[in-house]
Design goal:
The structure holds two protein chains of two kinds.
Chain A (H helix, E strand, L loop, with lengths): L1 E10 L2 E11 L4 E5 L6 H8 L7 E6 L2 E2 L5 H10 E4 L11 H12 L4 H14 L15 H13 L5 E5 L7 H18 L2 E6 L2 H7 L2 E6 L2 E6 L1 H5 L4 H16 L8
Parallel strand pairs in A: 3-8, 3-9, 6-7, 7-8
Antiparallel strand pairs in A: 1-2, 1-4, 4-5, 9-10
Helix pairs in contact in A: 3-4, 3-5, 4-5
Chain B lengths: L5 H5 L10 H12 L6 H42 L5 H39 L2 H7 L4 H40 L3 H11 L2 H27 L5 H30 L4
Classes of the chains: A alpha/beta, B mainly alpha.
Chain lengths: 254, 259
């Protein structure tokens, strides 16, 4: 289980997170929604030590990790994998090498084992035919999926997705959302998804947290949020309604 | 040059090593002696810095040598009535200043700009975050191979630039001023010695040390988009060039005790 306790983070005079507290239950898909600049990505980066909080605590199981050194964070990053907003693939490496990158450094695998793990990871994101291509030979959606495969290769217990569908077309967005759900079911991972896509959150989240101006304005299951009286939540829901009226009907995920 | 502004404070103080230049310097020294050393990447970087920069540097120092010889001759004739001291004077100027400084400035604009743009792009596309998530220390992975390669390349390219510069000076002195090879070399030997070439290589190595550090510093602090990458690159070239001129002054002051 992951717990954030009164977490605060500012950049200069700008307060991004203001005493945020919530927990993430093992095995669930938690969506963190909010408009741009509300500190959703900052929250994820604090969890994996890419940013450090100004105050507050972050608990992973029974360890308080917010004051960990860079070396100590290595073990946390083995348990928690992060898929970034951008694919963040290394341009000079092939898809295979990108996915193998972390494995080579963090696990002492024989070449056969390494190859097997890479192919398995690529199969999970349905991209096992493209391992010899370079990132610039792939579509943006495929690059995103390679990025997910690179994270999956290290078999993390927790997956963090930072705006996984930003910049994707509607069809690829659906594919990536389905993938997040599928991975959660297959691998039994805990997933935290930062997004501003309420439609996707309603489709696949177990719980949703809505952030605004550094505060949690509402949280609950998708059904609970549908009854929310919070103006921001209502606005998100109105957008979902408009989208579903204008867009072709999509099957709701199981 | 390396002070923090409010904007920079907001620039995600996320990498301890990029908080200020001194932190990056200390961090880089620590990483220099911490494995793994990426030798193959170091060799690749050496090829990029030394081999691929050599042609441009040679062209520039050749013209600098031509100007030095002709200008020295013109002014000496004006002041003392003859130009017999031109070969020795030009050799000193080339070995003690021109060869190293021109090489340093050209490396700053070519290599420094490349390093700053590369790191800045990696930063804004979250590749540096990804490296950290995959258990890689960014300074060890990105800065150290470039730093080692640049120090060696700086020294070696400076020596080559000095030798080509001297050779060009000799050819021009022969063609325009009538100094034969023997006359030129005799005059050079009277004014300059191997020590000058060695100290020039130390200057080149020092410039080679500062260029990747300054460029990496700016690269790591980049945020935003393509426009910011451009600005980062410009800032890094300007800062590297100023640093080179400043270090040249310090080293020249120190070396003047040894000449």
């Amino acid at each position: 289980m992951i717990r954030f306790v009164e977490l605060s983070k500012s950049f200069g005079s700008r307060t991004i997170l203001n005493k945020i507290s919530f927990e993430v239950r093992t095995g669930e898909i938690l969506f963190i929604l909010g408009t741009s600049g509300t500190g959703k990505s900052v929250l994820l980066k604090n969890l994996v030590g890419l940013l450090r909080p100004d105050s507050g605590q972050i608990w992973v199981d029974d360890q308080e990790i917010s004051r960990y050194s860079e070396e100590q964070y290595l073990s946390i990053r083995r348990q928690i994998g992060m898929v970034f907003q951008q694919p963040a693939l290394f341009d000079s490496l092939t898809v295979f090498e990108n996915v193998a990158f972390g494995l080579r450094r963090l696990e002492k695998l024989l070449p056969d084992e390494l190859s097997k793990r890479v192919i398995e990871s690529l199969q999970l994101v349905h991209l096992h035919q493209l391992e010899n291509r370079y990132p610039n030979e792939l579509s943006y959606g495929q690059q995103k999926r390679v990025s997910i495969a690179r994270t999956l290769a290290l078999k993390p217990k927790v997956l963090l997705f930072d705006e996984p569908t930003t910049g994707l077309d509607p069809v690829t967005t659906t594919t990536v959302n389905e993938l997040i759900f599928e991975l959660s079911q297959k691998l039994k991972t805990t997933s935290i998804v930062v997004s501003h896509d309420m439609k996707c959150a309603i489709d696949i989240a177990h719980r949703i947290i809505v952030l605004d101006k550094g505060h949690i304005v509402d949280q609950g299951t998708p059904d609970e949020l549908k009854k929310s009286e919070q103006e921001l939540v209502k606005e998100f829901l109105r957008e979902v309604l408009q989208t579903s009226q204008s867009a072709p009907t999509k099957e709701k995920l199981p | 040059m390396f002070t923090k502004s409010t904007q920079q404070d907001e620039n995600l103080n996320q990498y301890e090593f990029s908080k200020n230049f001194a932190s990056l310097l200390v961090h880089s020294f620590k990483e220099l002696i911490t494995p793994p050393l990426r030798i193959s990447e170091g060799i690749k970087q050496f090829h990029f810095i030394a081999h691929e920069s050599l042609f441009v540097i040679i062209i520039c120092v050749c013209f600098a040598a031509m100007v030095t010889i002709l200008e020295s001759s013109f002014h000496m004739k004006l002041v003392i009535g003859n130009d017999s001291l031109v070969p020795g004077f030009a050799a000193l100027l080339i070995l003690r200043e021109l060869g190293a400084v021109i090489t340093g400035l050209l490396l700053a604009s070519r290599v420094g700009a490349g390093i700053a743009a590369e790191i800045a792009t990696m930063k804004i596309t979250e590749q540096i975050d990804a490296l950290q998530m995959l258990g890689v220390r960014p300074v060890n992975y990105i800065v150290v191979p470039r730093l080692i390669a640049s120090v060696f390349a700086g020294a070696i390219v400076t020596i080559l630039a000095n030798l080509v510069c001297l050779l060009t000076a000799q050819v021009i002195a022969d063609i325009y001023l009538g100094f034969s090879f023997e006359m030129f070399m005799t005059a050079v030997k009277r004014f300059a010695d191997f020590n000058d070439l060695f100290l020039s290589a130390i200057k080149g190595a020092s410039f080679g040390f500062v260029i990747p550090l300054v460029s990496s510093y700016y690269g790591f602090r980049c945020k935003g988009g393509a426009e910011d990458v451009g600005q980062t690159t410009t800032k890094s070239v300007v800062a590297s060039s100023i640093a080179i001129i400043f270090i040249d002054f310090i080293l020249t002051s120190l070396f003047s005790q040894l000449y």
